[in-house]
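Q: Hi! First time doing this. I have a protein sequence and I read that you can turn it into a structure. Is that right? Here it is:
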Amino acid sequence: MLMLFDSSAWGWRIKNKIEIMLRKVRIALALVFFTGITLLFLDFSGSLHAWLGWMARTQFLPALLATNVAVLLFLVMLTLVFGRIYCSVICPMGVMQDIIAWLGKRKKHCRYGFSKEKRVLRWMFLIVAIVAWVVGVASFVALLAPYSSYGRMVQNLFQPLYLGINNMLALGAEHVNSYAFYSKDVWIRSLPTFIIAVVTFITVAFLAWRNGRTYCNTVCPVGTILSVLARFSWLKIRFDGEKCRSCSLCTRGCKAACIDFKRHYVDYSRCVVCGDCLTACKFDALHYTHKAGNASSVKAEKQQAGVVKATTDEQKNTSNVTRRSFLVGAAIAFTAAAKAKVKKETYGGMAVVADKEAPNRATPITPPGSLSAQNMARHCTGCQLCVAECPNDVLRPSADLLHLMQPVMSFERGYCRPECNHCSQVCPTGAIKPVSRAEKTAVHVGHAVWVKKNCLPVTDGVECGNCARHCPVNAIEMVPLDEADMSSPFVPAVNEERCIGCGACENLCPSRPFSAIYVEGHEVQRRDKDSQKAMLSNEE
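A: Yes, that's right. Below is the predicted 3D structure, encoded as structure tokens:
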């Protein structure tokens, strides 16, 4: 990494091999992080979290929201020593941009150029994100967060493909009486979130294909924060003006557009230390070192620090159509809210059964361990990791504008089983606090509400009691509709103090399309010590 053996041709060859090796190490580490985090969002069984969960906790914004001091100090020190290597190794969005840029570069060799930093735009996005987080509009922060944006893309666009392959393997295993795979429904959990994921992927992919790191160095708030630290990093890519032949290979190969070969200038606030310029240089004029270069290089660094300022008419032109298209696409996705039509299925040609529809809940239900709606709004970035990991298809992104893309519970496809705590174990931001299996039934996320007009014993005069039979905490009792007449239909009576809001009653109610009993959420979750003791005694 340091300037070794610069005085001889043999020394230059050794240094060049070292830089090539360091670049290969960076690429290998980047692929490890990229693959691991991608698998986290693809996995629907929760089995990979024990091995790869730490990768999600090393992301900058989740660590910041979770006040993970150890990770934050590590990332700050990493940037102060090596520069913005976080963006080219740890951040999955950054690695994805590098992969797309590499594919685009193969079509046209050496196609980049130097452009001045769009400082006003960068700080505008960061300030707006901070203000939105302070006032509680977390959905805007979630739009800009790189880790969360990547997670939404994987969960909405690539996990269905992953599930399709899994289902084909499950079908094949079934024919040989194997249980190595099991099938999983493929469905869109939230249309607005799906649209946002599509728009984000198209926008980022287009910018990376055409201009490399435009999104990373203009829109991303994490990149803006790290850019401040990167200006003072110990190791930097520096010019040796005496050896430079102004061939422009370094500039035309820099996907961050941060190298000006004419002035021997590197914009360290945008440089992600990918190493492409080091391997592109044929004259040993670039070095990744802590030593200052010659006079021209020092002058260029002073220009970056603001001591010497130089502007051109070309640099003053800050119009960028792609950024406008990103904002317009995001605005369209915000306003997109379409209701899915009721799908009907036939069973043996004997009956037509309509799918369940979600009731209009006065208070949304947040996952067990989220503490309160306020805590969820303050910490959740809408990365969809908990949604991807939910094995019961209970969690889905909210369509509410103020809480857009944050997870809420709904029970059309399943219910929150007492033994499942996957969502609380995978959340990297602290929006969902860890809850053990023993504590699960002590967490009250809501309470059941009976709807008389939908109840079969009332409407059809038949016996039911499905809700009472399947309640895991015995919070529902069947009582006569008319207390004075024991021959009247038996209907459910809910003990709200005991009910934990798991949704088993709502999910298993035979009424269609709306259940005769549904769950209303609690603004603030509470824990019941008696329920916890009962759970522990049952396990024993």
